[in-house]
Each structure stands twice: as C-alpha cells, then as structure tokens.
Amino acid sequence: MTVESTARAKTPRSGVKRTATKTTKKAAAKKAPAKKATGTKAAAKKAAAKAPAGRPEPEMVQLLTPEGVRVEHPDYSIDIDADELRGLYRDMVLTRRFDAEATALQRQGELGLWPSLLGQEAAQIGSGRALRPDDYVFPTYREHGVAWCRGVDPAQLLGMFRGVNNGGWDPNSNNFHLYTIVIGSQALHATGYAMGVAKDGADTAVLAYFGDGATSQGDVAEAFTFSAVYNAPVVFFCQNNQWAISEPTERQTRVPLYQRAAGYGFPGIRVDGNDVLAVLAVTRAAVERARTGQGPMLIEAFTYRMGAHTTSDDPTRYRSDDERAAWEAKDPILRLRAYLENEQLADEAFLASIDEESDTMAKRVREAIRTMPDPPAMSMFDNIYADGHALVDEERAQYAAYAASFADTDEEGN
Predict the structure, then answer these.
(1) CA 255 to CA 167: how far, in whole Å?
(2) Beta strands of 185-233 (E only): which ranges?
C-alpha cells in the first residue's frame, strides 16, 4: 500500500441508520416547518453544531502503547535495533533535562522567556532522527529536541531568549534554520526552499514544524497551496499539543487537522505524537516520499504540552488537572523506558548513566548561560541591510553620541 493510500482516513460508518432518502427528507421539511428548539433539544442542537454528528474518530498510527507494549501497524513498520532504541531514550531524557534547566534559568532571571517542550519529546526526537544530514529543517521556537538531533549545542538555543543574539548558530552548518517567533511564517520559508532544491535537482527533503495554532494562519494555507501546485519536497509537521496558548483545538477546526491536507491535494496522516517509534516510522516514509518527487505531506503528531505555553503563561487558568493527569499517563519517555525494561534492552546501569549524563549537561548549560557575554551595544545596527542604509547610519551615529555622553559623565566623577 502506498503512502497516499495510508494517509487517507479510514472512516468507519457512524452507526446512524438512514431511514429516509433525500427526496423524502425534502418533502418532510416542506410539510412540517422546523419548530424552535427548546430544553434538551436546544442543547442537542448546540452540541451538534460544535461536533458534527457522525464524525468518526480518525485512525492514529501507533507502534508503542502507553503501557510500553509493541504493536504493529499494517502500513507503517520499523526495523530498529537495541542500540537505536537506547539512543532514542537518551535523546528524550537529555532533551527533557535541558528543557527543565532552561525553565529554571528563566525563573532565576537568567532568561527573558522560555517555551517548554515538556511532553513533546517523542514528536521531536522521532521526527528529528528520521532525517538525513542534507535535509533542511525550518523550526518554530519550541523545537529544542529537533535542534539536539541536528547537532545544535543546547547552550546556543538560549542566546536569543537571553537577548544576546538573534539565534546563536549558523543555520547552514546544521541545516537547521533559526527559530521563528512569527507564527506560521516558516511554513512559507520551507516551501520556497523546497521549491528551490527541487529545481536544483537535489534529492533533499525539507521539514517545516508548526503547532496546531499555526494552522489557523494564512501563511500555512498559502504554503499548502504552493507546495501542492509545485509538488515541492516538503513535509509539514504539525505538533498538535491540544492548546494554542489558551485556545483548544476544537475552537479552531471542525475536522482533524491532518484531514486539511486533502483539500490542497496532498495526503495527511495522524500519528501518536507520544510514541517515538511511530513518529520515526511515519516521518521516514514522508521524507522519502518527498525526496522521490511525490510531493508534500502533512503529519499531525497528536501530543500534549504538559507545561505552560511559555514561562509567562499560567495553564491552570484554562485547563484542568485531570486533563494533564490523563496525558501524563501517556508520557513518551516512561513509555519507551517500560518497553526497554520489559524487553530487557536496558539495565539499571544504563539508566543511571543517562541520568548522570543529564546532570553533567545541565551543569554545563547553566555555566554557559551565566557566563554568556553581552553583545556590544553598537552591534544592534549591524546586519539590518546588506548594502547599508542612510537612516540606519544616522541612527547609529545618534546612539554613539548618546552612549559617549555617559562616558564623559563618568570621567568627570558625577
């Protein structure tokens, strides 16, 4: 079965028995005008408007259950050895520890802001490890796990959030673009880049990350249109973590997000975003599809943001403890650990070594951020225009004179 066929939702019948044809329905409507709904009927009508009747639950690719039991999927399978499994576990544990350290640093005043990935480790590590070095990634601002997979030093991710640089790494050295704060714009950047590499004849795949909230942005819709029309080798990876800040997914869409791809002419699929094996298998298939000239694909990783949207957010104001507890039972790291232990693929010595490595990395990151030098004040005027600009030159001169006035004051001892 091809990826295109597997991407179509296998929609079971709703179970609603049809008792009238379209003709008889129209006739009945003419004979008996609809009465104003009251009481329970009004409530039912309101519920129907929120969730269309008969809408089936979409199929979701899963290879590892929340209890850590390996299962098979008819269209997606994965051949992975013990070393790779332990590597995925290490990736997720270290990524989570770095994320926790960054959150603590923000609370201590070392960072201005931090967007946590807590709970989304499998979606990011699984997809990140599915890529080749020559593939190119366009992230949002939360893809710390993908950055880890692309070889970006964790400490480099913190510079922008400390306010000392505009990114901290060379995108072309890791084929990992700088973080994008503007919601959804990177989908267009990825599409344009993918169109370019296709014209160059390269068999490179491009991966664009965004959240469920970004699917409401026009930039994403435009990226879908262009990628489909030009058959661009781009994979759109939506991490549906259920909340666009405080806005739940059901307030944004009447259908599962992955089904939107069909309207643009390319396949979409939903994968268990807390199952690192399923994410790895699906992303591998999608990027290979892109590389071989079969065009774009949308992956919806169904996961959950267990932390706040950013450190300036208070999730207790809009979601319940019961909801979080239900998702904690599907924790991606505990799921893989249970599988490794049940299959005797990891012992206590291995698990302890990963914890020790996590502590070492956290200490290094903490020291790096606290000793990170502030940039020269005048550097804010650099790299604005490639060929310079008269107004920027004027502003630079004015600021230089302003800064020099403080030096004169200090020399006079006032």
Answers:
(1) 36
(2) 206-211
Catalytic residues: 305, 309, 318
Coil, strand or helix: which one is 240? strand
Place of tokens 């070392």: 110
Backbone angles phi, psi at 167, to 5 degrees: 170, -60
The pTM of the full predicted model, rounded to 2 decimals, is 0.82
Report the SS3 class of residue 276: helix
Q: Count the Cβ atoms, other than its own, within 10 Å of residue 167.
A: 15
Query: Is 236 in contact with 298 (CB distance < 8 Å)?
Result: yes
DSSP state letter for 21: -
Structure tokens at 299: 């992956």
Cα-only R_g, the chain: 25
- pLDDT tens by residue, 182-238: 999 999 999 999 999 999 999 999 999 999 999 999 999 999 999 999 999 999 999
Q: Give the CB-side neighbour count of residue 408, counting CA atoms within 13 A.
A: 6
Distance CA 154, CA 105 (A): 13
Q: How far, in Å, CA of 304 to CA of 243, rounded? A: 8
- CA angle at 300 for the pair 283 and 335, rounded to the nearest 5°: 75
Where do the DSSP E strands lie in 8-72? none
Amino acid letter, residue 153: D
Do residues 63 and 56 touch, judged by C-beta distance below 8 A? no
Write the CB contacts of 291 (distance below 8 Å, at least 6 apart in sequence).
203, 204, 205, 233
How many C-beta neighbours within 10 Å does residue 59 have? 18
d(CA 330, CA 332) in angstroms, rounded, equals 6
The token duo for 357 is: 């490595």
Whole-number Å distance between alpha carbons of 12 and 221: 28
